[in-house]
Description:
The structure is a homodimer. By secondary structure, the first copy, chain A, is of the alpha+beta class.
Amino acid sequence: xxxxxxxxxxxxxxxxxxxxxxxxxxxxxxxxxxxxxxxxxxxxxxxxxxxxxxxxxxxxxxxxxxxxxxxxxxxxxxxxxxxxxxxxxxxxxxxxxxxxxxxxxxxxxxxxxxxxxxxxxxxxxxxxxxxxxxxxxxxxxxxxxxxxxxxxxxxxxxxxxxxxxxxxxxxxxxxxxxxxxxxxxxxxxxxxxxxxxxxxxxxxxxxxxxxxxxxxxxxxxxxxxxxxxxxxxxxxxxxxxxxxxxxxxxxxxxxxxxxxxxxxxxxxxxxxxxxxxxxxxxxxxxxxxxxxxxxxxxxxxxxxxxxxxxxxxxxxxxxxx
Amino acid sequence: xxxxxxxxxxxxxxxxxxxxxxxxxxxxxxxxxxxxxxxxxxxxxxxxxxxxxxxxxxxxxxxxxxxxxxxxxxxxxxxxxxxxxxxxxxxxxxxxxxxxxxxxxxxxxxxxxxxxxxxxxxxxxxxxxxxxxxxxxxxxxxxxxxxxxxxxxxxxxxxxxxxxxxxxxxxxxxxxxxxxxxxxxxxxxxxxxxxxxxxxxxxxxxxxxxxxxxxxxxxxxxxxxxxxxxxxxxxxxxxxxxxxxxxxxxxxxxxxxxxxxxxxxxxxxxxxxxxxxxxxxxxxxxxxxxxxxxxxxxxxxxxxxxxxxxxxxxxxxxxxx
Lengths: 321, 321
């Protein structure tokens, strides 16, 4: 109840604080009313925030370390889609009760990903409530160099990183009451934000978005913001071996074009940037595939290999639906 | 469920976005993967994050506009306690279902307080889940000028703004099954973050904290961080007329010294700053009262007007307790 203090909360925070790494630009981290941070001259600050709720954004049976990982990953993916280098984050964690073993697992996953990308956890709070994780991630980008959704231009190539559809396929298996293929489930639980490649893209790409809600839907946001349209070669979307072995035809197309939670980057770039993009992909160990082009006709058209238009069974799903 | 997109979410965000004010230092606000913000040279960035959960941080019967107000207020209070001038915030809102009337009321309260302090809402998300509000607030402070908890020094005066105990008294009335005095309830629901005074304090005070968990407990954090102790004149704590009319003796002392949710600033400053502090209080329309002094003996001692030591009935409450 309001008015309650935070005695036990402090112990949980202390349990997190002692494990956190810092950075030279963190003047004051966990333990005060606010963190104090230093933004270098000539840089803009990129700020993304996303909440994950149990049963909405991850299955109830997800292991704590995967929840910690994913809560940070989806925010780092947003920063990657801006071309920003991640620097700091805050964590607001609601837990039904103080479960130290659960918290330790959660923090394992969260800090493992943070360490991979040099991100310092600088603040946050723990509160009592239904399981929910709110992360705010802060990144840095050269002034004026952020990758926006509204910068796609007619004639741009459309690219996507990695592979699409694994997370949606895993979710379909779970929702059918089965056990998900481990390779697919790993994509659902432990998405890899394309941080290094996003940073490399900043001077090369026009528009960028991360694929969280389904490729066609997310690309639609780019097109509307940019006042353009898109043609996507739906049969050229990159698929993982695990997905290709399981799905085909319209099932595969639906999982790849409409499935969410892939956290790949979809971006547009002028055709003459293709060589530099391929080099950046190679340098960062990221696959990048051209999947279509930006056109002046509004809307997002999915075109099959036989030249026909493919109509998605639905244009993404919806919260509150 | 994860994999679900955000069709209806977008409409809720759009409902918020069209009402939001901006600032010249917001390069890109709501509607992209991240906001892009400009931190002026010579300033540090202060970042605070706090989550409010229904039934934990506000009573279930709280009106939506008060929930919106309080969710931002507690974060602005954290920035005020750093001496930082608030600039931007993000909002992550979990709602059980898409209720436009509720959302409009919530946004009314949130944006009213944001407008009072020139804060731009630059991003966030809406998700389906139990009612919960996570806000991250960003402020600016002159480089090296942030008010930390670890800067109290022996011989400092201890001050507090406004009055203490109203929120705790309102909560006690509610928890006893009654209706709270409206003046007290307003302090619980609509706390006034001491923003202008916090900014004015930055060059004057040593240490500062906001009183969210109870004066003695919060002052204890300052003392531990600073390696000092405190003596508080418990019978000199400022009380509102509504509280003074209702409570006395140990009940009053408990509500004032141990009650949470006041969101006043407690700060320490050298005695020779008293004149400047009084002037800053007058200039910002804020009451400021000296309530004790920093000593070298560890711990926080509460001293009665008769010179005896007052022992609190408990040292604050605890989440997860």
